[in-house]
Amino acid sequence: MHPGGIAVTTAPVRRETTTPDLLSAFPFPFVDDIYRYSTNVEPANQQVITPAGQWGDSVAVIDSEYRNELAERAAVLDADPTRRAVLPHMRPAAWDALMTMLRELAHAYPDTMHLTSAGHDEWHWRNDLLDDERTFRYGEEASLGDDPLHYLSTQVQEDIALLDQRDDQLFVDAGVITFAADWSFGFDVGMSFLEIHGPVPRVRKMGVITRAHEFLKRLQPHEPYRRTNWTMTIGRRLDVSTERYPEWGPDREMIQHVDDAEFGRLVHLRVEVQHLIRLPDSGAIMFVIRTYLLPLEALATVEPWRARAAEVFAELPDDMADYKGIIKYRTRASEWLRTHADPQPSADDSLTCTTELDSAHNVPTEPVHGLPDWPSRPPEVDATGSEFLIVAAGATDETAHTARAWVRTAESIGPTRLLVLDSLTHDDDRTSLIDALAATHTGGRILVTGGQYDVLTALALARESGAIADELAAFVTDTTDLPVYCAHCRDTFRGVGSPGGVVECPGCTRRLEIHEHHSASRGSFLASAVDVRDLEALS
Fold first, then answer.
1. Domain housing 515
2. Mean residue pLDDT across the chain
3. CB atoms within 10 A of CB 34
4. Helices (H), 366-426
5. What's the total number of domains in the chain?
6. Residues 349-392: tens digit of each pLDDT
7. Is the same domain home to 263 and 409?
8. CB 444 within 8 Å of CB 385
9. Is 227 one of the catalytic residues?
10. Based on the domain organization, do 212 and 91 belong to the same domain?
11. Beta bridge partners of 48
């Protein structure tokens, strides 16, 4: 049992053998000796020939790890239910995703996967590999015996994320993500696509994320696309989520001290093939994320891959290597590949290329950073509001002055209430705010002032009560504190500090680094264990 009461079942992560199909179907990601961020999207369902074999024929792929990976996913979900979420408005999209992927499986593997219509919205599904057979009615969970997204996760090796498109933005509002590469799905649920990618280095200046955002919004049903992403992982460990950093984080130190043979066996090139699909019935966007792992010792047997990966690792800028978590061993990985050439290289030294569909059409010049951007002066009261709730948290003069000015203006427009709170760390103050929000009608305006912790917490509670962005305004009088979400025990607490700083979690006592990653819907900053020495002491 980990601190905070969350049990973790550790699945095997270091299976040493690479079966032939895992090598021949590996989606090698590098098209040049230099790697930089790009949207790198191309039409899906197109075969890619590689020096080792081929990949890309279908959206859903079943390989020799099918049962192992499904068992590992089940263990992760049993240990941590936050890896699975469906916000209420996404239930139709979950059914849409299930039917789309079952059709994909039946089309790609007709000998073992079977989907047939039984009439009147009834369907019969049979998975011969798992001996799973059931008849269900579309939209009725009772007939399926499970919620559709969870059931889908028992049939495919891919992770699934569902994005809702509203207010000209995309929001990650549902998914089953058990094999995350150093991110937290549980924290990111409800965040916008732009917020989630705020911490990625370079993409703000390069405009990559906003180009991707605009491209995704233009996706059409029945026209799927795909892209690849990559990093490196120590051991054959699929779940390297932020939540489990205490388990895999020390491997980044350990790997620097093993011999060459062990290094080649344990260091894996990790590639995600991400399919991007506009679902036909709900209009949601489905991210289908498949993770592939190949140890360096296997990669080195394909000469063009060995040579190119060595160059990419050596040239990769430090900020990108640091973000990917490989800065401590990427140089050794490059050197290892350079000294482990296969004496009998593949006859086909060609490398596959990816067609990039980056488009500058109607794209903002700068992506949105995933951090709050507070105004330097109190915003004006919106005169179109039908009523007003003014919330003042804290006892500073600036907070009181701001609230009084808002009240004077609001009272000249419509019904106005002033709620003065000490701090939202107090249960009674939180209850008072929740009650006041419940009494606020559609079209009302909610204005909040105070320290950063209280303002972010109040705005999150307002959003939870149903308020939309146009109904909210805020002015922060002090940025020395903030709400912190611990990725390990899931506690949210008031911390004194700023992104990049270190605080102690009162729930699990870990020392946490505050990430430059903020969730408006959750109202907090993500934080995770700060360094390997702390992790070893806690193990």
1. 482-538
2. 89
3. 11
4. 397-411
5. 3
6. 444 433 333 333 333 333 345 678 899 999 999 999 999 999 99
7. no
8. yes
9. yes
10. yes
11. 55
